[in-house]
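Chapter summary example.
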Amino acid sequence: MNPGMVKKLQKMQKEMQKAQKELEASIFYGQAGGKTVQVEFNGAKEMQGITIDKEAFDPEDIEMLEDTVTAAVNDCMKKIDDETQETMGQFTQGLGMPGGF
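The structure predicted for these 101 residues follows.
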């Protein structure tokens, strides 16, 4: 491999690492049930918080709450995955690799 290509790849690797760290430090929000459940995760997919509107749920219907929490988490995970794909995809375009790898 020629030295110019090696330098180019090293620069791209540093940019990818920086972008990954920025993504991991970013905060993402998910919600479900008309905002009755809201979750907060960082880009590393670690939960940072959850807010539940207690007035919106019947204490006898725990399944409804569980389903709503699951939907809010899934909403947030999709947002993280979409942002990761968009951000990291810029580095893999033209390399024949799917985004995020």
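To summarize the output: Helices lie at 3-25, 62-92.
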